[in-house]
Amino acid sequence: MTDPTSEATSDAPTRGPRRWITALLVTVIAVGLLAAGGGLAVALGIGRTEQPTVDSVDAGFCRDMSRHHLQAVEMANLATTRSTDTDVLRLAFDIASTQTNQVGRMQGWLTLWGLPLTSSDTMGWMDDAAMAGHDMAHLDGAVMPGMATEAELAQLRSLSGTPFDVMFLQLMIRHHQGGLEMAQYGRQHAAVAVVRGLARSIAETQTAETTTMEQMLRARGGTPLPVR
Hints:
The protein is 69% helix and 0% strand. The protein is mainly alpha-helical. It has 2 domains: 1-48; 57-219, Up-down Bundle (Ferritin), CATH 1.20.1260.10. α2 packs antiparallel against α3 (86-112), α2 (57-82) runs antiparallel to α5 and α5 (161-189) runs antiparallel to α6 (193-219). The chain is elongated and about 50 Å long. Mean pLDDT is 83; it is low at 4-14 and 22-48.
């Protein structure tokens, strides 16, 4: 005959672990439901900031800075076959690699936002005060402040050696000066944090590179071009 007291005693040690396992399972299920709810919220756009519109500072900055950067990359790539100056080649490589990466990021954001990569409304995202001194109709054929004209690019392509280095530095300094104003405006007025962060990084990098290029230009007997 089984002793009831003995049976009760034998079950007692298993109840504590069972309760612990049950509590753990409940916790895991609760966390899973919470995660699923969070994922659903993200999928539905709950708690997310509104995506930039086609005429926003964020979109305009990404479009125009991409175009601005691509010309800098084009000029930097010319150095690989037209310059023998180690410092110029190193600078050109840094500019080309950095700005190509940044263009990829900006165009990637535009794609994620479902917005076009180009627009006819060049610089329309910057207000009149920010554009003071940059009459878009009088940039000598340049698309945006700081950019080289087609005639200037053709002349740069025709040069090699020290004459190339001097003109390359002149054009790139002016290019950086125009891009700096765009970056500063984007840093101050963009709504999306990653766009503001990139604009800040561009402003800091181009400020430092401009100082370096001015020193390099003077060492090679050149002087900066007027700001445009």
